[in-house]
Specification:
Radius of gyration: 17 Å
Strand order of the largest sheet: 1-2-3-4-5-7-6
Strand content: 35-45%
Oligomer: single chain
Distance between the termini: 30 Å
Number of strands: 7
Number of helices: 5
Structural class: alpha+beta
Length: 155
């Protein structure tokens, strides 16, 4: 059972998230940016990259056979970057952007999303926390390289 403090925090987060405007824009034919605005202020974004014939990206890490076992259709969406302004971290924006990215991937009929979990800067999540964040969406580790973890979601 959730505590009163947890319930109040969730309620405040939901009210805040409902006041955010999310805009999806094609940056070019292979990149999509989903931006979060609070009023006129850009407070976060996620960039998706549509990939096909991308074995070259993994050739240092996986054999060609392993690549085609992981990506049998030879296409996937890569989460290139996600960023939240420091003041808005831990407010649910990253969670909402991830949900929208997964929804957009489904709309585009992609059934796999790949990302390389790697902490950026000093104010972001530590690697273990970042990996746990992505696991909440169903991502699985495919390669742990110590300072980054490659992850895959089959949707």
């Amino acid at each position: 059972m959730k505590s009163l403090k947890q319930l109040l925090r969730e309620n405040l987060e939901n009210k805040f998230i409902n006041s955010i405007k999310f805009i999806t824009k094609n940056e070019d034919e292979d990149r999509i940016k989903i931006s979060a605005f609070y009023g006129d202020e850009l407070i976060g974004y996620i960039i998706l990259e549509l990939n096909q014939n991308a074995y070259w990206y993994f050739e240092d890490d996986f054999s060609e056979d392993d690549y085609y076992k992981m990506f049998p259709n030879d296409e996937f969406i890569k989460i290139e970057h996600i960023e939240i302004e420091d003041y808005y971290k831990r407010s649910g924006i990253a969670k909402k952007l991830m949900e929208l990215a997964i929804k957009k991937s489904k709309q585009l009929r992609y059934d796999q999303i790949y990302l390389n979990a790697s902490p950026m800067g000093f104010s972001g999540l530590k690697l273990n926390d970042l990996v746990e964040f992505y696991k909440k969406f169903g991502f699985k580790e495919i390669l742990n390289q110590g300072n980054n973890v490659q992850m895959l979601l089959n949707i």
